[in-house]
Every structure is written in structure tokens, then in C-alpha cells.
Design a protein that fits this description.
This protein has helices spanning 2-8, 50-65, 70-86, 90-103, 108-120, 124-137, 142-154, 158-171, 176-189, 191-202, 212-218, 224-229, 238-258, 262-273, 281-296, and strands at residues 18-19, 38-39. By secondary structure, it is mainly alpha-helical. A two-stranded antiparallel sheet has the order 1-2. It starts with a helix and ends in an 8-residue tail after the last helix.
Length: 304
């Protein structure tokens, strides 16, 4: 399968990397078990699109020079903030979202983005307030439920997170990502019940959806090596490969975290960050996961 990716993705850097010794060495001097190795797939990190750079320049010029209403200027700030966010310029994005809200206090999506940024900074109370504002203005804003649920999950309130994740899941029961976030929160509350619920919900997900493989991994139906081996199935471009790896490596990080393999989990979170797919949920929170891991070991050596 790797050969087909090379054919379709000439710019991708696809390398086999020795990963995480999983074998064990026998105490018997005359025999030694070989170390089992997985193979990682590494795509070329996404680069900032020239279209994004041009869009930022044009929006900046319009904001500075055009005679527009406050509502129009608020929308321009919001639009530029979204582009800043998509290329990883979080602080500039947050400035623009706040400027937009000063001009137009009912701009729902700006509250949603600000809540996400507060979550990434571990400013959970401010995040809850931002998502509450979004939902007060637009009770049907389903992604505000997802993002508030994530904030509650990382804020140490998994029971409350489940309420929001459940609302989000009910809107589309065949979405594997909605099922996965439900599982992560449920696991914090009751791991055994979480596995039973995951098995039940997985029946709603089409088998050929690639992320179904994440669920199968979590259920123990496939092992980590098989999961990684099939990551490239159906991928025909470097963009598609990078997107998939961002998601896959984040969920592999969470999987190893659950298994108590903290160093391996940290490596997978770093690999997710290395894709530069800034707008994905998985990229946003891979960084937070690493921060939390560093804090958990109280200033000792950075997770390897």
C-alpha cells in the first residue's frame, strides 16, 4: 500500500521509522526475544497556502481602507480571524475575534472560536462562558456543544461533558468522531461501561469509514500495528494523507494514554502536531495533551 501512496503523492515523505520497543528481553543468556517494531508513516507537513496569505492581505487592506458599517467590519475581522486560526496564528486570530465581538456582540461563531482558544489555554471558566454565550444566541449550534464538551472534559468535568457530547452525538449517530469523544469522556467516568457503550454505538458506523478503525482499535478488535499498517488505505493525495495522520496519531496518543504508556502517547501527540493541520480538533488538543502531561510530572523531564 505504501507504494501506491508514493505513486499518487510524489511530494510525501514516507519513511519507515522504528517505533517503541514492544518486545521483551529474556533473562536467559542463551535466548533473547526479538523486539517488535511498528512502522510509522510520515507525510510532508502542510504548508501555509499562498491563498491564505493573499486573503489575509486583502482583508487587512479592506479593514484599513474601506468605508463599511460596524457589522460589516465585524464580519471582516471574523473572517480574517478564521484564516489566522487556520494557519496557526492563534493570538492574532483571538485579537480579531474579540474585535469582531466589540463591533457585533451577537456574532455566534466568534464566541465559539474564542471558547476553543480559552480551552487550549486551560482558561476553562472563560471557555464555558464563551460557549454559553454562543448557545444562548443559537441553541442549535451543534459544534458549540462539541467544543463545550471538550472544554468540560479537559477541565476535569467528564460527567458534564457527556451531556454536551450526547447532544452532539444525537445529531449524527453515524459519525465516528462523535462516538469517540463520547467514549473518551465515558471512560473517565466508568471505563467498563464506556467499552460496552462504544461497542453498541459502533454498529451505527459504516464499516468502510476509515475512522471506524480507530473504534476497532479501542475495542481491541485490531492491534496498533495493524491499525498503522492500514492508515494509507484509500488515500490518494498528500493533503488527504496529512489530514488522516493528524487524526490517527492523536487517537493513537489517547489510546496509549489509556493503556498507561505515557511516553508512547506523547510521541504520537507530537506526530499529530507535526502535520500542521491547525484547524483540526485533533491538532488543537494534541498540544494541550502534551502540556497536561508535562504538568503532571511537575517540571521533570519532558515526555519523550
Amino acid at each position: 500500500m505504501l507504494s501506491s501512496i508514493i505513486k499518487f503523492v510524489p511530494t510525501a515523505i514516507i519513511v519507515a521509522v522504528a517505533l517503541f520497543a514492544q518486545g521483551c528481553v529474556s533473562l536467559n543468556k542463551t535466548s533473547q526475544k526479538s523486539t517488535s517494531m511498528n512502522q510509522l508513516i510520515i507525510a510532508e507537513p502542510m504548508q501555509v497556502s499562498y491563498k491564505s496569505e493573499i486573503a489575509i492581505a486583502r482583508l487587512s487592506e479592506v479593514i484599513l481602507r474601506a468605508e463599511v458599517t460596524d457589522d460589516q467590519r465585524a464580519q471582516l475581522y471574523y473572517d480574517r480571524g478564521v484564516i489566522y486560526d487556520s494557519v496557526g496564528l492563534r493570538s492574532l486570530a483571538r485579537l480579531d475575534f474579540n474585535r469582531a465581538l466589540l463591533l457585533k456582540p451577537n456574532l455566534v461563531n466568534a464566541y465559539n472560536f474564542i471558547g476553543i482558544h480559552y480551552t487550549q489555554m486551560q482558561e476553562y471558566m472563560q471557555a464555558y462562558d464563551a460557549f454559553d454565550s454562543a448557545l444562548d444566541l443559537a441553541p442549535e449550534h451543534e459544534y458549540a456543544y462539541l467544543n463545550r464538551g471538550i472544554a468540560l472534559y479537559y477541565g476535569g468535568r467528564p460527567e458534564l461533558a457527556l451531556d454536551d457530547f450526547n447532544v452532539f452525538h444525537q445529531r449524527q449517530k453515524d459519525d465516528p468522531y462523535r462516538v469517540l469523544w463520547m467514549y473518551l469522556a465515558e471512560y473517565e467516568v466508568d471505563s467498563e461501561a464506556a467499552n460496552i457503550a462504544l461497542k453498541k454505538r459502533s454498529t451505527n458506523i459504516y464499516d468502510k469509514t476509515w475512522a471506524k478503525q480507530v473504534i476497532r482499535l479501542y475495542l481491541g478488535e485490531i492491534n496498533q500495528g495493524d491499525f498503522i499498517t492500514h492508515l494509507t488505505d484509500g488515500v490518494k493525495s498528500n493533503k488527504a494523507l496529512t489530514d488522516r495522520l493528524c487524526e490517527a496519531y492523536f487517537y493513537l496518543g489517547k489510546y496509549n494514554q489509556i493503556k498507561g504508556r505515557q511516553s508512547i502517547a506523547a510521541n504520537f501527540f507530537k506526530l499529530a502536531l507535526g502535520t500542521n493541520v491547525y484547524e483540526f480538533v485533533e491538532h488543537r488538543y494534541a498540544k494541550l495533551e502534551l502540556t497536561l502531561m508535562r504538568e503532571a510530572i511537575k517540571g521533570s523531564v519532558e515526555p519523550e
